[in-house]
Specification:
heterodimer, A: 276 residues, alpha/beta, Rossmann fold, 5-stranded parallel sheet, globular, B: 314 residues, 2 domains
């Protein structure tokens, strides 16, 4: 990755984090922790990897993105707004009754949202359907999905994993946000889904483990996924929930809570200071 | 042509016949292709049939993903596992985004027979019709099934198609039959009471009309193949003439056709409505005729309820 690209992607990751906090703060509700953890993945996908056109969000040959962990919609909205799908000024309308930025992604009303999600597991299956359709139509688009590590406790995730491997959906690449925390506590204490990588391996997937606050590692994984033929790829991403905001990092309490005015100001100050 | 066919068989045949004309149709099944009869389609179009294994929730959401790309997926399983097991996937991944997914649910109702209660879904109409934007169709015979499948292909949005396991007689003449989503069909005119039936119960309702003749009651028989959106106009027109209504369905009397008819008429033209259906019970194993008898899904019961409805008229 050249320096200019890296700088750009770092800037976009920061914009996604700031947009997330702006949206959640304005709404006084939402899910900052898991949004901050996936900001680098979204920056890479939306600003480097995916073949997309914000002016033509329904372009039939575009790459698809499904946020299967739909509760982290603020990060997706911030990515879409910064990519040019809609005005970044709309981020502060998040979760309000007159906004198209629903609490969870709504493909019918938000430009750039490829699948309605929010109920965990469903997005992953839908991504499999998109990938299958691409295969049988001889289209070369790729499908990306981001799942949570708590989400993989859903049985449907493993139905989808079996399906994708069976139909050799090598045009499908998922990122699992392995931040270790879910609403009720550490994932290993709730109902331990680990080892997640070995599970995907056992389900006949190509799997790659990375530290996901490293844009070059994300790029290497995405490239390896493209190079892998005959198998879908799962990138197991060791992430920090709340990444970039000291008082949110690794705190389960920030899964689904909005910062107050002081906390918001501190979070913005920390993020902007770090990137200067 | 045989004089009887199960609507599930007619479903598989219709998909296969229409598969040529509609290249965008793809079919999904959940390890029941032999029973749901999508296996017939698979033989002709193996490249457009995908077995999802015993994983109905995944199948429905996969269908949703396929629909986002412009194809028209038909996802099939038994009604119990489509509408029941995968209810939440249908609600959130298909209904809410209003995706163009067609759910072909076979083995609905107690006419599943010997497999018993776990496989006899008497709740699917109720579940499906409460999903905003969902169209719910329950055809009465083979010809209507074919027409319903083609109408579903041409309808933009989610459709739940309800089919039965047991063979039912052909009711219509191919030359004159017309199907339109949301339009009920008057099978036989009458003036004293309206019998509104769907699916398997339609031909039984026609038998009930004959029984009622002996008592001097002239029944109108209406086939409501589309339970949602229901043909309120036709129901009101008929009820305003007869003043009494009986519904007949192979479904719980709560929330299905009977519920839908009561909702429609109570707002537009309140008249006595008595319901024939499964009386809020689970099914059980048995031969189909024995079960229909035991659960009151008979011409005799419809006729008895019709007489009671007539007696309730003001």
């Amino acid at each position: 990755m050249d320096k200019a690209t890296k700088t750009l992607l770092e800037e976009k990751a920061l914009a996604i984090r700031l947009g997330t906090l702006e949206a959640v703060h304005a709404a006084s509700s939402g899910h900052p922790g898991g949004s901050l953890s996936i900001a680098d993945i979204l920056s890479y996908l939306f600003f480097k990897e995916m073949r997309i056109d914000p002016k033509n969000p329904d372009w039939a040959d575009r790459d698809r993105f499904v946020l299967s962990k739909g509760h982290t919609a603020p990060a997706l909205y911030a990515a879409l707004a910064n990519r040019g799908y809609f005005d970044t000024a709309l981020l502060k309308t998040f979760r309000s009754a007159d906004s198209f930025l629903q609490g969870h992604p709504d493909m019918k009303h938000t430009p750039g949202v490829d699948m309605t999600t929010g109920s965990l597991g469903l997005g992953f299956s839908a991504a499999c359907g998109m990938a299958l359709s691409g295969k049988i139509s001889n289209k070369d688009y790729r499908v990306y999905a981001v799942l949570g590590d708590g989400e993989v406790e859903e049985g449907q995730v493993w139905e989808a994993a079996m399906f994708a491997a069976h139909y050799k959906l090598d045009n499908l690449c998922i990122f699992v946000d392995f931040n270790g925390l879910q609403i009720d506590g550490p994932i290993v204490d709730v109902v331990d889904p680990t080892p997640i990588d070995k599970k995907f391996e056992a389900f006949n997937w190509n799997f790659i483990c990375i530290y996901c606050h490293d844009l070059e590692a994300i790029e290497a994984a995405a490239e390896a996924a493209k190079a892998c033929k005959g198998k879908p790829t799962a990138v197991i991403c060791t992430c920090t929930k709340g990444k970039g905001v000291s008082f949110m990092e690794n705190k389960v309490g920030w899964h689904g809570k909005a910062p107050n005015d002081d906390e918001y100001a501190q979070a913005v100050a920390e993020l902007t200071a770090k990137n200067n | 042509m045989a004089d009887k066919i199960a609507t599930r068989q007619a479903y598989g045949d219709a998909l296969t016949a229409l598969g040529e004309k509609y290249e965008n149709v793809v079919v999904l099944d959940a390890d029941l292709a032999e029973a749901t009869k999508t296996g017939v389609f698979k033989k002709k179009f193996p490249e457009r049939h995908f077995d999802c294994g015993i994983a109905e929730g995944n199948m429905i959401a996969v269908a949703a993903g396929i629909a986002t790309t412009g194809k028209i997926p038909f996802a099939s399983s038994f009604a119990m596992f489509a509408a029941g097991r995968a209810y939440e996937q249908i609600r959130n991944a298909v209904g809410y985004p209003h995706l163009n997914v067609k759910i072909g649910a076979t083995h609905a109702g107690i006419s599943v027979g010997e497999d018993g209660a776990t496989h006899q879904c008497n709740e699917d109409i109720a579940l499906m019709r409460t999903i905003p934007g969902m169209t719910v169709i329950c055809p009465a015979d083979g010809l209507e099934t074919y027409a319903a499948v083609e109408a579903a292909i041409n309808h933009q949005g989610p459709v739940y198609l309800r089919f039965g396991r047991a063979a039912v007689p052909y009711l219509y003449d191919e030359k004159t039959y017309k199907f339109e989503i949301g339009k009920g069909i008057v099978l036989s005119e009458g003036k004293d009471v309206t019998i509104v039936a769907t699916g398997l119960m339609v031909h039984i309702a026609l038998e009930a009309k004959e029984l009622l003749k002996a008592d001097g009651i002239d029944a109108e028989v209406i086939n409501i193949h589309t339970i949602k959106p229901i043909d309120t106009e036709l129901l009101v027109k008929s009820a305003s003439k007869t003043g009494a209504v009986v519904t007949a369905e192979e479904h719980n009397v709560i929330g299905g056709l009977g519920g839908a008819v009561c909702e429609a008429l109570s707002e537009k033209l309140p008249v006595p409505v008595l319901r024939v259906g499964v009386e809020d019970k689970f099914g059980k194993s048995g031969k189909v005729p024995v079960l229909l008898e035991e659960y009151g899904l008979t011409a005799q019961n419809i006729a008895a309820k019709a007489k009671a409805a007539v007696a309730l008229k003001k």
